[in-house]
């Protein structure tokens, strides 16, 4: 290659790349940034109160000298979020850095008024990565939750985040919704937004001091509880734990959960550990009206047995399967009933399913989908399998019968 | 110049010749002139440099031989001495006084006969030379251990012993107006491109070098001035097996008297990333090690630059927990990450140079100081962050993984350039810098062979021994890749 060609191609590549990678110029040293891990938005009067939880990095090192808090919470009031964010510079010497934001919390008042407005900036701004999770603080202020000293993780936002992930994995009634899911749900007519709720437990004022974690007993903590149902972008009500389970089951987001079931022929309960759930949606038309059929495949293990049964016996297993299946159907029905009758909000996204199956018809239904959803019959058929019974076969009290 | 006349033949009068040589050699302390009277009454003189010849051979094969009774019977002439008397290995007749002086300077014994216009040179070089030892610069665990020494003839023999092919040709050139260093160019006829050999010989003859002690002198003469680069264009090694493999592949080796390092051309980029050991270990293992080596090359060149780019431009690309840990370490560090990196890298380069140059006996002291200064005190004094020490350490260790020292030098230099680029432009600068580097490499060629071959231009056959080494059993027939590194 001759020299001139080399230089021209260099310049061409430089120019092309500067288009693609622009916006990166302007370096910032790590110790000129305040890393924001969580943001809370509360409604105070006509204004938003925005609170941010930032990390004091010096407190993250192993050799920290003084007893300072690992996080700090700043709060500002302003009619819009962006103004509040800029106002923080009057309080803090470092630029707020939002790329690593993990959590966004709304209080109920903001959620009831609509979250479309406050969320706009957080999606629009190039400095914020849209992968944070969102939850509603049930019966409290987001700012208070920001200030909570959490027991398991040093960083409260990480604690909230990991706990949400974990509970979604192994305890069904929470919905880990990140901002991309949220936008998708808000954009869709055939699917209502759901956000998980989080509330305080215990003494919140003591929970905000470092004293909260100085002894084994914890004074104040948070707890994920139920799922908040939205119509459009407004919170309309809450589902309790069982009903929330129905939502996650039908959304195929149950990875593992446990449920207790009454024993078929004796007193007491047995507990199943659900290992795999697959809900197949079969949308149908009956007299030009929608009908949804749900085929549910469940694989579960027996986790605890209080019943007086012989687990070795095929018949008793079958009857246990039967009651477990009925129990699950009842859970699903209760959730669907609540969504249909009380909230009139299609939290399961059945509308989306019809949209895909009957696209043309959907466009006629789209307008009055809430009414159609309310009246729509839902059929459920469950294929339940109890697979394993653990290391022992029969319950501990009739262990002697087993003969090894 | 005021040098005595050394052209033409000798004076028939021995005394005149003795005087002339004394004048040329300036009555040097080690210049020995020994005059003898032969049994027949004829006078001869022996000239040599003490320490440059094998004295024992001189006694046994020259001086004793001169008392041969045959000299009583017939007339003593130079040709009689040449054919019938002197029993030493290499004897030749010499007519020119200037040539005779050169022979004496390179370890010959000059014999002049009274009344003759010509002389004899008995070549019995001697004196202390180093024995063949293990390679110190490129040691291997398994495989040939021998390394070249400072003696040219020994070195060419070490290669000949490995390639018993009659087509091996050696051409000799003398380079260096003052040092008159012998340079031997070895190649396998037919396989190697003889035009390149001609060009090398031509350029060496035309060179105006005063002195030559190592291949680097020749590299700078032979390398075209149009290609300015910091990358090595001549592979050098002190391993005879590597040179032998190169010869078989059709490359051209350049031996220089007085140095154990032999050059080989054409040299490609991949050569510098290969070690002789690769060919002596199972190919699977060799390939893994080679990949580690390329990884090290990139770490050595880019690690500090990537660290700077990520921490000052692209904090969003670092996982949250890692970012917090990095941020914690940077608390209270007074310098920007770039300056911090620069301080540490320069400190390390100083330490490395010190370790290389200092007398071995005080090596301990330097390494202790280095460890304490770099590793501990700087961190405890909050001048650099611990993670920077890790980055510099991995960079430094990676630079030792590159098998050819001559390749690790440009990589180390480029490291600083990349650090600057990423401090100014972040990963954008890094990417552009890297593209320019590749363009530069793709533009280089070594004696007609593209430097980035077999990748640019691509050659499927040569992939057999580029980044990976294929198993010997699976190679394509004919003249497949050998193991020239």
Q: Give the neighbour order of strands across the main sheet of chain B.
A: 1-2-4-5-3
How far the N terminus sits from the C terminus of chain A, by CA atoms, comes to 82 Å
- Structural domains of chain B: how many: 3
Residue share in β-strands of chain A: 25-35%
Count of helical regions of chain A: 13
Give the rounded overall mean pLDDT of chain A.
86
Listing every helix as H and every strand as E from the N terminus to the C terminus, the arrangement of chain A reads HEEEHEEHHEHHHEHEEHEEEHHHHE
- Strand tally of chain A is 13
| Number of helical segments with 4 or more residues of chain B | 15
| Average pLDDT number of chain B | 87
List SSEs of chain B in N-to-C order: HEEHHHEHEEHEEHHEHEEHHHHHHEE
Domain count of chain A: the total is: 2
How does the helix and strand content of chain B classify structurally? alpha+beta
State the shape of chain A.
globular
Unreliable stretches of chain A, pLDDT < 50, 5 or more residues? none
Radius of gyration of chain A: 26 Å
The radius of gyration of chain B is 30 Å
Low-confidence stretches of chain B: 478-485
Helix content of chain A: 25-40%
What does this structure look like?
The complex is a heterodimer of chains A (404) and B (485). Chain A has 404 residues and is α/β, with parallel strands linked by helices. Chain A has 2 domains: 29-239, no CATH class; 242-404, Nutrient germinant receptor protein C, domain 3 (GMP Synthetase, Chain A, domain 3, 2-Layer Sandwich), CATH 3.30.300.210. Chain A has 13 helices and 13 strands. Chain A has helices at residues 3-20, 81-87, 108-113, 116-124, 142-146, 156-170, 179-187, 204-207, 241-250, 314-343, 350-357, 359-365, 369-375, and strands at residues 33-44, 47-55, 71-78, 95-97, 103-107, 133-137, 194-202, 220-231, 234-239, 257-262, 269-286, 289-305, 378-386. In chain A, strand 11 (269-286) and strand 12 form a beta hairpin. Chain A is globular and about 75 Å long. Chain A starts with a helix and ends in an 18-residue tail after the last strand. With 485 residues, chain B is α+β, with helices and mostly antiparallel strands. Chain B has 3 domains: 14-123, no CATH class; 152-267, no CATH class; 279-449, no CATH class. Chain B contains 15 helices and 12 strands. In chain B, the strands form 3 sheets. Chain B has a 5-stranded antiparallel sheet, with helices on both faces. In chain B, helix 10 packs antiparallel against helix 14 (386-401), helix 10 (283-312) packs across helix 15 and helix 12 packs across helix 14 (386-401). The two termini of chain B are 47 Å apart. Chain A binds chain B through residues 1, 6, 9-10, 13-14, 17-18, 21, 24-31, 33, 35, 37, 55, 57-61, 97, 99-100, 102, 129, 155, 158, and chain B through 311-316, 320-321, 323-333, 336-337, 423, 425-428, 431-432, 435-436, 439, 442-443.
């Amino acid at each position: 290659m001759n020299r001139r060609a080399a230089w021209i191609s260099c310049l061409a590549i430089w120019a092309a790349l500067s288009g693609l990678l622009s916006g990166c110029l302007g370096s910032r040293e790590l110790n000129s940034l305040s890393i924001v891990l969580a943001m809370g938005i509360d409604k105070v009067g006509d204004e938003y109160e925005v609170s941010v939880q930032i990390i004091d990095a010096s407190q993250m090192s192993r050799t920290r000298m003084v007893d300072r808090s690992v996080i700090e919470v700043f709060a500002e009031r302003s009619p819009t979020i962006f103004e509040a964010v800029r106002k923080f510079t009057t309080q803090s010497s470092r630029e707020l850095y939002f790329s690593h934001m993990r959590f966004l919390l709304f209080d109920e008042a903001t959620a009831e008024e609509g979250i479309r407005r406050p969320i706009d900036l957080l999606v629009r701004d190039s400095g914020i990565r849209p992968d944070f999770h969102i939850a509603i603080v049930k019966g409290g202020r987001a700012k208070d939750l920001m200030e909570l000293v959490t027991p398991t993780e040093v960083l409260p936002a990480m604690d909230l985040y990991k706990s949400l992930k974990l509970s979604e994995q192994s305890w069904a009634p929470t919905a880990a919704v990140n901002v991309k899911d949220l936008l998708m749900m808000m954009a869709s007519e055939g699917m209502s937004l759901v956000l998980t709720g989080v509330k305080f437990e215990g003494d919140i004022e003591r929970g905000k001091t470092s004293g909260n974690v100085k002894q084994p007993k914890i004074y104040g903590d948070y707890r994920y509880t139920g799922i908040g149902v939205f119509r459009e972008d407004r919170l309309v009500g809450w589902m309790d734990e069982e009903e929330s389970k129905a939502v996650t089951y039908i959304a195929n987001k149950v990875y593992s959960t446990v449920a207790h079931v009454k024993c078929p022929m004796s007193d007491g309960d047995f507990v199943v550990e659900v290992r795999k759930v697959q809900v197949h949606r079969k949308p149908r038309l009956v007299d030009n009206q929608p009908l949804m059929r749900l085929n549910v495949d469940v694989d579960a293990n027996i986790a605890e047995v209080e019943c007086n049964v012989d687990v070795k016996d095929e018949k008793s297993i079958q009857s246990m399967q039967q009651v477990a299946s009925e129990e699950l159907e009842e859970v699903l029905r209760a959730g669907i009933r609540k969504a249909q009758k009380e909230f009139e909000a299609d939290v399961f996204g059945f509308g989306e399913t019809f949209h895909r199956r009957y696209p043309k018809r959907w466009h006629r239904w789209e307008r009055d989908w809430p009414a159609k959803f309310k009246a729509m019959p839902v059929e459920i058929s469950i294929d339940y399998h109890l697979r394993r019974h653990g290391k022992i076969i029969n319950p501990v009290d009739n262990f002697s019968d087993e003969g090894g | 110049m005021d040098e005595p006349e050394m052209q033409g033949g000798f004076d028939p009068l021995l005394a005149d010749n003795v005087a002339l040589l004394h004048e040329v050699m300036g009555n040097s302390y080690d210049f020995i002139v020994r005059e003898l009277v032969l049994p027949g009454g004829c006078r001869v003189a022996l000239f040599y440099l003490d320490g440059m010849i094998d004295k024992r051979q001189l006694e046994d094969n020259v001086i004793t031989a001169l008392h041969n009774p045959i000299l009583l019977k017939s007339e003593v002439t130079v040709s009689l001495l040449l054919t019938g008397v002197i029993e030493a290995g290499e004897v030749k007749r010499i007519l020119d006084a200037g040539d005779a002086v050169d022979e004496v300077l390179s370890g010959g014994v000059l014999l002049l006969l009274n009344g003759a216009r010509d002389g004899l040179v008995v070549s019995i070089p001697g004196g202390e030379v180093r024995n063949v030892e293990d390679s110190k610069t490129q040691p291997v665990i398994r495989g040939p251990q021998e390394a070249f020494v400072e003696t040219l003839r020994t070195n060419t023999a070490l290669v000949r012993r490995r390639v018993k092919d009659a087509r091996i040709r050696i051409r000799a050139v003398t380079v260096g107006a003052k040092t008159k260093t012998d340079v031997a160019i070895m190649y396998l006829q037919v396989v190697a491109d003889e035009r390149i050999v001609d060009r090398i010989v031509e350029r060496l003859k035309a060179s105006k070098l005063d002195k030559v002690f190592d291949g680097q002198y020749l590299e700078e003469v032979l390398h075209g001035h149009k290609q300015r680069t910091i990358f090595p264009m001549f592979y050098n090694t002190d391993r005879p097996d590597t040179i032998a493999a190169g010869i078989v592949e059709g490359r051209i080796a350049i031996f220089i008297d007085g140095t154990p390092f032999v050059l080989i051309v054409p040299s490609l980029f991949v050569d510098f990333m290969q070690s002789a050991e690769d060919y002596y270990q199972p190919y699977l293992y060799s390939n893994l090690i080679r990949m580690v080596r390329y990884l090290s090359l990139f770490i050595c060149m880019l690690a500090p630059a990537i660290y700077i780019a990520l921490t000052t431009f692209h904090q969003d690309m670092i996982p949250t927990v890692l970012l917090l840990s990095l941020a914690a370490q940077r608390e209270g560090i007074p310098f920007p990450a770039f300056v911090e990196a620069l301080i540490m890298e320069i400190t390390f380069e100083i330490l490395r140079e010190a370790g290389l140059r200092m007398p071995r006996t005080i090596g301990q002291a330097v390494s202790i100081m280095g460890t304490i200064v770099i590793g501990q005190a700087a961190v405890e004094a909050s001048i650099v962050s611990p993670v920077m020490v890790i980055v510099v350490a991995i960079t430094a260790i990676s630079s030792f993984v590159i098998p050819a020292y001559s390749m690790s030098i440009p990589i180390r230099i480029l490291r600083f350039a990349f650090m600057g680029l990423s401090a100014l432009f972040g990963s954008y600068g890094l990417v552009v810098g890297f593209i320019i580097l590749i363009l530069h490499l793709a533009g280089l060629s070594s004696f007609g062979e593209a430097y980035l071959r077999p990748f640019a231009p691509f050659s499927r056959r040569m992939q057999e021994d580029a980044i990976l080494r294929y198993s010997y059993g699976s190679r394509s027939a004919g003249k497949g890749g050998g193991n020239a590194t």
